[in-house]
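Record type: ASSEMBLY
Status: queued
Input:
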Amino acid sequence: MSESLDTKITANPLIVLREEFDDWALLFNPDTGNTFALNPMGVFIWKILEQGELSSAITRKVCESTQDAPPDAEKQVEDFVLEIVRLGLARKEGERDS
Amino acid sequence: MTANSAGTKPFYPIAELYFYLTADCNLNCRHCWIEPRHLAASASSSCLDPALFVKIIDQAVPLGLNRVKFTGGEPLFHPRIEDLIDVVKKRGLRLTVETNGTLCTREIAEKIASVDNAFVSVSLDAANPEIHEWIRGKKGCFAETLTGIRNLTGAGLHPQIIMTLMKRNPGEMERVVRLAESLKAGSVKFNVLQPTARGERMFAEGQAVDIADLIALGKWVEEDLSKTTILPLYYDQPPAFRSLESMFNPQSGLGCHTCGIFTILGVLAGGSYALCGIGETVPEMVFGNAARDSLRDVWENSPVLNDIRSGLPARLEGVCAECLLKNVCLGSCIAQNYYSRHNLWAPHWYCEEAHRHGLFPETRLRQTETIK
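Status: finished
Output:
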């Protein structure tokens, strides 16, 4: 993971997580009405973000959680977290709430 | 949606035209939502003029057209169906054909197959001939449909089998899947009977499946029946009732299959432009006629179409306003909703009925406390 990304990332506390029977979930932004689907790994990462975590630690926790992480797991996690931040669902440390 | 050349007004391409090619049909299906005139003849006598068809295509291609759907009535009942298919092929457009299969000769099947990536769906409501023919209103049509399907597979196509669910046939679902496998179909889709036109009368007569049973059947198809076959099975209910995995996991291959209302326009057999086929039964959903009106003018300036573009999904009402998937679902079927309530923003009957019975999935609602 690139050094510039290794900052603490925290879930936007306004976002609502709706977990479903099959371990998938919806993320719902009450302010915008936007909704996003998360697969079980996305839910796992979201719960890490709810506690706030360094991006490098997120990747480590993901890899530790699964026996069969793909070779590009680090990149996939990085892209996912960047997307979460871009969508305003989480923020990097030092960023202000919008 | 993209920005137009001025960069200000949204531009919606017409990605697909639904051609309701015939105003009559060789079958007399008791649930049909279009309600065409039944005609016991070898060809339709009330169908889209081929010259008008070409004119419409010519006007639509610059507006973004890349796909056409032939439906009806019965599209293969059109006396010049092969000429129409040729037009689609020559323009390099994608083709979808929705048919009852009974008129699908080997020649027509090969003609359809000559169009790149053509997609055909064939209605088959039971593996039991008696039940299928009770629904379709013509003795002997079961065997004709199977012949049509075999002609399609013989031409290299793998049609989708579409079965509409009503009180009489859920016991046929698994048998239809097995029959579809044996016929080398490509997939099976289970449609829910809609309370429109003849379907509305079936609801009134108590011939529709109860909402609780419909939801249970959807779950059974997704969790059990689909595991018994290599064929993709689609259960056509609003996204709120489908698992997220079935819609969003690329490996499931099923996708959301939601209404393309922003990029679709219907063309009726008389040349009228309409909101899908609902214009056949709801005159205010007709926006013009190809014989006299410019397609661009209709598409860009129809007050109803512009209302839909600006209002969906934000103006949806009832349970649809509270649904977390409304941005994906867009009310499931605006034509159906309008037919039921004469209100473009009315909630879909399936969701409303489920909500009324406390069966709407709680995790899919904005406010979970609205569940009683």
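Annotation: The CA atoms of residues 127 and 176 of chain B lie 5 Å apart.
Annotation: Chain B has 15 helices and 14 strands.
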